[in-house]
Amino acid sequence: MNLKKLLLLLLTSSLLFVKCDNPSEPIDNEDIVPQIDIPWPSLGNTPWPMHHHDPQSTGRSKYSGPQTGVIAKKVYVGMSYSGISIGYNSSAFIGTFYPYDFYSLDYEGNIKWKYSSLFCYTTPLISSDSIIYAAGNQSFFAFTHSGDTLWKKNLSTLDKIVSVGINIDKNGNIYYIDYNNTLTVLDKNGNIKWKLRDERFLNWTDAAPTFSPDGNTLYVQGISVSVIAVDINNKTVKWIFGDKRLLSSPVIDNAGNIYIIPGEQWFSNQRSIYSLNQQGVVNWKYDFIAETLWDNTEPTIDFDGNVYFGTDTLYSITNGGKLRWKKSLNGTEIVSPLICDKDNVIYLGVQDPDNGDNKIIAVKGNGEIKWEIIDTIERELGVSPALTEEGTLFYPTWNNEIGNFFIIK
After folding, report:
1. CB burial class (10 A; 0-12, 13-18, 19+) of residue 228?
2. What would the pLDDT profile of 248-268 be if each residue is shown by its tens digit?
3. N or C, where is the chain less crowded by C-beta within 10 Å?
4. How many Å apart are CA 124 and CA 161, to the nearest integer?
5. What is the pLDDT of residues 125-171, one digit of tens each?
6. Sequential DSSP letters for 41-53
């Protein structure tokens, strides 16, 4: 081998080593599986109409997010478990459990209208005909866009709602899991269409069932199992998967693949993210180590089909299950659902378990940090942040005595 060839070989080897050693540098990705928003005629055609954006819980917006990452305003609403949804005419919606107020706000955080005496757990859902659905404890409400009450359904102590997510099928029927481990389906007028009880259904605040792309299967989180697939036409269980509870909603891609991270919050550091096909068979799994796995920290899927998830580390996995990159979060832990925008920028909420400081971080698709915000005041970041068509990020807080949420631009 002559000297020229030897030097070229050494240079090439050195470059390969540097590339693989940098966790923020993505590997060559030939596993691009383009994603589109699945048509859903009953759901509001708004920037963020429901929990984690859509019936498949992708957490993916068709708009760009904030470019600079500046807190424009903190808005007081009260203590809340609810996420934020965006409706028609630049309206944001959020509910509280104290002082029992439900809000419609403009993009600057000003009140458009407010309804009192609604103990709200769920993230609001906006239908294509501008109806706003919200529920919690022993009542379920439907409001017009202007704040008039279309109907109120009283619930018993046994069938109350404490779950964060409700869903809607393609015909406009509403689905939720009640406190009695029962899947309940309401029509748009609040009448019960059917119920299915299964003690394996997760019935607490983390519950947020999701739909298959064709709308025929509802995926329900489990207590003693991970996922329960329900055939909504036959009103029966089709299949189950796993033997560990699932504390975040299943996330579904365009091909109907289901992404889940089962397991308890604590007591184990051996974790796995699974990709299942529509029959509940494992496509692949990726193992990772994490001491803590918080509830309602749903993964997100970008427009190339890449999956993002994490705990004390943020991971990017191709649609086929290959690691693209991973990035340490420097002692903080993800405490909110991940979301992404049209530029494949990922937005995550984290907290330092030692001092309670919060961060909201924007991470580019290649793993580079775009911006980050540090907050030392609020208690904890909440579920289902929402992106507007103007690039504003609304970020809720969870069980926060101060009662604020963030408007980030």
Report:
1. buried
2. 999 999 999 999 999 988 877
3. N
4. 13
5. 999 999 999 999 999 999 999 999 999 999 998 899 999 999 999 99
6. TTB--SSB-STTS
